[in-house]
Amino acid sequence: MTLINQIRNCRLCAPRFAATATRHSPRPVVWFRPGAPILIAGQAPGMRVHLAGRPFADRSGDRLRDWTGIDEDIFYDRSRVAVVPMAFCFPGYDAKGADLPPPPICSATWHERVMEQLSPRLLILVGGHAQRWHLGSAAKGGVTETVRRWRDHAPVIFPLPHPSWRNTGWLKRNPWFEAELLPELRHAVDQILRETDDTSGPALPDTLP
């Protein structure tokens, strides 16, 4: 069984999810293929992504695609863009209706094995969980400080806040993000996609495992 299918069949967190306010079953959202030049490392699927079965199929995804300048067709082409969250399943809601954090057992079980199969040219780190895993001590200052120091990692790595619409206030308080970071991110994305299109054949269909 391939690694992708192993993750799709994972049920490690079934008892954990059954005990949440949503009482849902695991549904790993697995969206990567070796060779994709762009890797988006996120936190965990939300409820809409859980229901849709594909990553960022929500308003956060609309904002992330705007930030990166990637249209929907390219975003969901797994030969170009891999999406690897720190937990592949929706963690559920707590009693107050807030998203629960990604269960550490997911990244401990799968993340290193997935990363061994990938060799991205551009790594986009969305949110604190992904930044701490991929950047280690360089992300100790929290999301705002890590994103503020984006030049330390560009043009290979770009740390971003979560594109949730709840972070609209953060964007207003930190205008440098849209004025300085996003143009450089879009340039890096565009350059890699252009170079990839020049050297690769047609994209593989997403029905393949």
Automatic annotation (TrEMBL):
Family annotation (InterPro entries): HI_0220.2, Uracil-DNA_glycosylase-like, Uracil-DNA_glycosylase-like_sf
Domain Uracil-DNA glycosylase-like: 29-186
Protein name: Uracil-DNA glycosylase family protein
Organism of derivation: Paracoccus broussonetiae subsp. drimophilus
